[in-house]
Amino acid sequence: MSDTTRAEDKMKENEPELDLKKLDLKDDKKANFKERIIESIKSKEYENVKVSLYDTFSNMKNMITSFAKFETSLDCYIIHLGEFLKWFHEIVTFENEVAILNGITTLLDHIQNGVQEIGKNDYLCFVIIVILPILQDPDASMTVLPKLCQILAKFTQADKFGFAFILQESIQHSGKTPMEKSQFFKQMIQLFQQYLTIQILNSEAGADPDEKVINVVQTLSIFGTFSSYLAAINETNNFIPYYELYNETVEESLDLKEDYPKWKVHDGFSFCNYSFLLSTATKGDILRIESMIQMRHELQDSFFRAMFIGVNNPYLQLEVRRTNIIRDTLYQLEGKTNHDLKKQLRVSFLGEDGIDEGGIQKGTLY
């Protein structure tokens, strides 16, 4: 099975119903501020430019009408990344960036306060926001991202899918080279990763993750959860390697003794539930904890069973020959039950005296 086929299968697993064809922009030409802004710049009506930019980015309908393009190959509307970025660089000045930032802040405030409600296809607006170069500025990102992540974290599954679909198609139809697409995707991930790092560093040591941390992690899960649409697309197109999603600050602040039990019993937020942020080494630590807990439980169960049933070895005991370690081990494991396989391992070499306190076991395994 090819990588593309596997990715497509992943997309279909949790793919909600999504209708992107009902976005009718024919009667909204008056709300198209894009060309109006360019004309105002040409005629040097700079105050009108700032007003139009604010009006555009403070209203979802105005934003979609101005920038959404119908892609015939997909039979739906997307944001043409190349055209949008070209337009942005034509109009960008410090004053215009401030107007855009103020507009976005107003829009996000209105959404949070219920003044503007998110409707079908409105996630096109959020695609526009996350691809804005203005967010690469630290001050701008710290103004926008807390509000943006709070909203994205509450997206329904259908909205997350729609957002992911439009975002990836906007990248795919950007007219850019594969390397440029990869770089753009990487910058977008890094934007949220840096924000997550800052929020963790600003948190009190040992404190539970606050709402801002939880919101940005849940937002990153749109990109990083391997059952999601974007993750499958990323895997197919090799936008970024999986390790780009690791976050060192998360790992440094992670207390598995506290986090792991929450994950196992689904008690509140747990970083273990967002494994795409964790390196292979940390995932290995989680597996070791899981193994130790299972061995401890099995050891306790063995003692209780011995009390009522009779003699019952609390360990997974293997007796092997040095000259046939692999064959002897596999032969004996074949006859063990699931309960036996969860027990702590004890190994002895045939014809040799010795109590396995870990050394003999290591000699067998390594």
TrEMBL record:
<dbReference type="InterPro" id="IPR044611">
    <property type="entry name" value="E3A/B/C-like"/>
</dbReference>
<dbReference type="InterPro" id="IPR035983">
    <property type="entry name" value="Hect_E3_ubiquitin_ligase"/>
</dbReference>
<feature type="domain" description="HECT">
    <location>
        <begin position="337"/>
        <end position="366"/>
    </location>
</feature>
<keyword id="KW-0833">Ubl conjugation pathway</keyword>
<dbReference type="InterPro" id="IPR000569">
    <property type="entry name" value="HECT_dom"/>
</dbReference>
<dbReference type="GO" id="GO:0000209">
    <property type="term" value="P:protein polyubiquitination"/>
</dbReference>
<dbReference type="GO" id="GO:0061630">
    <property type="term" value="F:ubiquitin protein ligase activity"/>
</dbReference>
<keyword id="KW-0808">Transferase</keyword>
<protein>
    <recommendedName>
        <fullName>HECT-type E3 ubiquitin transferase</fullName>
        <ecNumber>2.3.2.26</ecNumber>
    </recommendedName>
</protein>
